[in-house]
Write a structure and sequence with these properties.
It is a single chain. With 590 residues, this protein is α+β, with helices and mostly antiparallel strands. It is built from 16 helices and 25 strands. It is elongated and about 160 Å long. About 1% of the residues have low confidence.
Length: 590
């Protein structure tokens, strides 16, 4: 090939990659030993060396640059095309590209009867797509063919939308996702197949998308179906349980060939479904606007009526009404205010309460009072079993009397003197223990909530009954959010809603607010064990008290009495802001 022809070819093939010029037989032989897809020679069609070159390249596509216009037409089928220097560069590049494609197609030729049988099997299965006009039946054909070609235990056909990245299956309407994860997503995004020997060992595996029925120990073969536009139309998944043999190379090749042959038909079917959906949506839109009967009648009438005329009389006043409403709404947004409340649980208290607790453990012998009975300070309320304590006191008393007698008879008896002092201390301790077996009133009051019965075992610190002060001390104790303490003060209105009596609100006035914010545990200890376990306290709280003006309240046109320990919900309006600021918080900074 002369220098001018080589320069012309270089300009024509500038858009193609991986081109090389060989000078001499040695460079040509070295190039043929590599992966060459097509060859261009400058030998004349009359040159006898052309036959030797054709024998050397075998079935490699050969393009010949004609040196004269009167050369005879090539009779050898191995010559792909005769180029002329008058051809445009784009046409030369297209011919070379076509030769490369024909070379890749020639590699797929049938080499043996066994290969022909396998290909015929694949073609028979793929031809079943020709009669399918919906995705669901096509998915069934694909899954059945995949099972036959790979002898899989389970098969799936998931369709892929390249625009949205969604994947779904028509056979399982609830199974859908996106091609952003999983082996299915990898195949849909890359167009590459993959075979996994143990699914859960692969970092791309997502069970809910790749194999919802498996436990991750299965073998998976994932094959994309690529359409003529290069987009992945669907993904075929073959699942084989882990105890069976892996997928063979022949099975993988069969499935890949099946996907290659069905790719154009899958693309064709997807376009049909998409166009039908668009046309159906158009028809539905028209049917929503007009009844089908009306459209048919309109099409049959030759004479068209006059345009519908609408009287504008009501439009004028409707316009001003809407304008007035709009202005009133804007004014209301600016003038109207929204209250922000501090809310929390509350407890009704009618009397000051004193809890009587046991100072020692033991069996209860008797209860000396009854509910509602008035008792005086230090009055006996109940007795625990004091047999041992009383016997101990009596024993120590006798020993003390004996040693005291010896001391009086013999004032010089030092042992008796020491025993007197020792027994006196022991006797005082025993009497204290005996006194602790008796539960006495710490102050005067009315007995309430007796929680013990004779024969019951009492532990030290257990509440046995309550004493109520006779003085009337009706109030409600509310637990509001600790963060609202700076905004709370006496004199603020408090709205109370008794639990179980919805919308029966009581309007009260705060008369005391605690100075400290306490935690949930401290709040429960302050309220007492009788109601602490009935409240849910989520965080720091502040105690607020308001007096109840009456001993009763009204709900649903009925009058009910307050009872000590009733639960309620308290709300206090701590601040207010315009409605427009609530809707648009950025206005606070203006």
């Amino acid at each position: 090939m002369d220098a001018a022809t080589a320069a012309w070819l270089g300009d024509c093939l500038a858009t193609l990659a991986d081109t090389r010029i060989a000078h001499g037989a040695a460079e040509l032989e070295d190039a043929l030993g590599q992966d060459v897809q097509a060859l261009i020679t400058g030998l004349s069609l009359r040159d006898p060396q052309l036959g030797s070159l054709l024998d050397a390249v075998g079935r490699l596509p050969l393009l010949v640059v004609a040196s004269d216009k009167d050369a005879p037409a090539p009779a050898d089928e191995r010559i792909f095309f005769v180029l002329s220097r008058q051809l445009p560069a784009a046409d030369v590049a297209a011919l070379v590209h076509s030769a490369v494609i024909d070379r890749s197609l020639a590699a797929e030729e049938i080499a043996s009867p066994a290969a022909a049988a396998r290909l015929q099997r694949v073609l028979a299965l793929s031809s079943r797509f020709a009669t399918r006009n919906d995705l669901q039946s096509a998915a069934g054909v694909a899954e059945d063919a995949t099972q036959q070609l790979t002898r899989a235990d389970r098969t799936y056909c998931l369709f892929h939308d390249a625009d949205s990245g969604s994947v779904w299956t028509e056979t399982e309407p609830t199974r859908e996702g996106r091609a952003a994860m999983g082996l299915v997503g990898f195949a849909a995004r890359t167009g590459r197949s993959c075979a996994v020997e143990r699914a859960r060992d692969d970092p791309r595996y997502v069970g809910a998308l790749d194999d919802p029925e498996g436990d991750g120990r299965e073998r998976l073969l994932v094959q994309p179906v690529v359409g003529p536009d290069g987009q992945v139309q669907a993904v075929l998944v073959a699942v084989r349980i882990g105890s069976r043999d892996p997928f063979t190379p022949e099975e993988r090749q069969l499935l890949a060939t099946f996907a290659q042959k069905t790719g154009p038909m899958m693309h064709h079917l997807a376009l049909m479904v998409e166009t039908e959906a668009v046309l159906r949506a158009e028809r539905e839109q028209q049917e929503r606007l007009y009844r089908r009967e009306a459209l048919n009648a309109y099409g049959q009438v030759g004479h068209r009526g006059d345009v519908v005329r609408i009287s504008p009389a009501w439009i004028r006043w409707a316009y001003w009404v809407l304008l007035g409403l709009s202005i009133a709404s804007v004014v209301y947004l600016c003038v109207g205010r929204v209250d922000q409340h501090s809310a929390g649980p509350a407890i009704i208290r009618l009397h000051a309460r004193t809890e009587i607790t046991a100072q020692s453990s033991g069996a209860l012998v008797s209860v000396e009072v009854s509910p509602g009975e008035r008792v005086e300070a230090d009055q006996l309320l109940a007795r625990l079993d004091d047999t041992e304590a009383r016997a101990s006191v009596q024993q120590l008393q006798r020993e003390f009397d004996d040693q005291l007698r010896r001391r009086l008879l013999d004032p010089s008896d030092a042992v008796a003197l020491q025993s007197v002092f020792t027994l006196r201390g022991q006797l005082a301790s025993a009497r204290t223990v005996l006194d602790q077996r008796q539960l006495r009133a710490s102050r005067a009051g009315v007995v309430s909530d007796i929680r013990i019965r004779p024969g019951q075992h009492i532990t030290m610190g257990e509440i046995v009954l309550s004493l109520l002060d006779e003085a009337d001390d009706r109030h409600v104790l509310a637990l509001l959010a600790g963060a609202d303490r700076p905004q709370l003060h006496p004199g603020m209105p408090l709205r109370l809603e008794i639990s179980g009596y919805q919308y029966a609100y009581q309007e009260l006035v705060i008369d005391w607010v605690s100075d400290e914010i306490i935690g949930p545990n401290e709040a429960r200890r302050y309220l007492g064990p009788q109601v602490a376990d009935t409240l849910v306290i989520a965080g720091p709280v502040v105690l607020v008290r308001a007096r109840l003006p009456e001993r009763s309240f009204e709900a649903d046109e009925e009058t009910y009495q307050y009872h000590d320990g009733m639960l309620a919900t308290a709300e206090v309006a701590v601040r207010a802001e315009p409605i427009i600021v609530t809707l648009f918080p950025f206005l606070k900074r203006i």
